[in-house]
Specification:
- The chain is mostly helical.
- The chain has one domain.
- About 70% of the residues lie in helices and about 5% in strands.
- Helix 2 packs antiparallel against helix 4.
- The protein starts with a helix and ends in a 13-residue tail after the last helix.
Length: about 200
């Protein structure tokens, strides 16, 4: 499968784009769900978006984000161009692993959140009271999760020696460090998303 992705940069770019679009779409959907029902039990300082680049877009429930479209276009082009220029070398395999495995990690967290919401919706008695989570705490949890995925990808790299998993290890480690340090910033969005 990895060799197929390396040999077909257009398909790889398409898969990456689907994962990236899924992230934005599900985050937007979760922000709506939060406002409709989850805010009864949970408050998230800074909102549900953990990436500062998109926290205002998600808090505003913007379906159209110019930043999102620019990044989507640029990364899709990078994957296609780099894949056609350097398909036989490990650097493209590393890039494919970094770009796909990071979004696998992020999208799996979204799926977990939706699974959690479904249980709360179907069994409202399963949650009582109100929990307020600080921005610091949420960012540190995300950093921990990213570090864990980095370790898993690192073990896969050690076991098989494929640059694909080294790319995933590297990018998830960077993501873990980024969110570890983001925990100390003040979010742009107010403590609790209104209405």
């Amino acid at each position: 499968m990895i060799q197929f992705l390396i040999a077909n940069p257009i398909i790889t770019a398409f898969i990456w784009a689907v994962l990236y679009i899924f992230d934005y779409t599900v985050t937007l959907w979760f922000a709506r769900i939060y406002r409709q029902s989850l805010k009864k039990h949970f408050s998230y300082e800074g909102g549900v978006e953990m990436n500062p680049m998109f926290e205002e877009d998600i808090a505003g429930l913007r379906r159209f984000s110019p930043r999102f479209l620019i990044l989507l276009s640029l990364m899709t082009l990078v994957l296609i161009l780099f894949g056609n220029l350097d398909p036989a070398y490990g650097s493209f395999e590393f890039l494919v692993g970094a770009s796909l495995l990071m979004w696998v990690f992020i999208d799996l967290r979204h799926i977990r959140n939706l699974y959690f919401y479904q249980h709360v919706k179907n069994r409202p008695e399963s949650v009582e009271g109100h929990i307020t989570q600080s921005y610091w705490f949420n960012q540190r949890l995300l950093a921990y999760d990213a570090f864990t995925y980095s370790a898993v990808y690192g073990l896969a790299w050690l076991a098989g020696g494929q640059q694909f998993f080294l790319g995933g290890t590297f990018v998830c480690l960077l993501l873990a460090l980024r969110h570890f340090f983001l925990a100390n910033r003040k979010p742009k969005v107010d403590i609790i998303l209104a209405s």
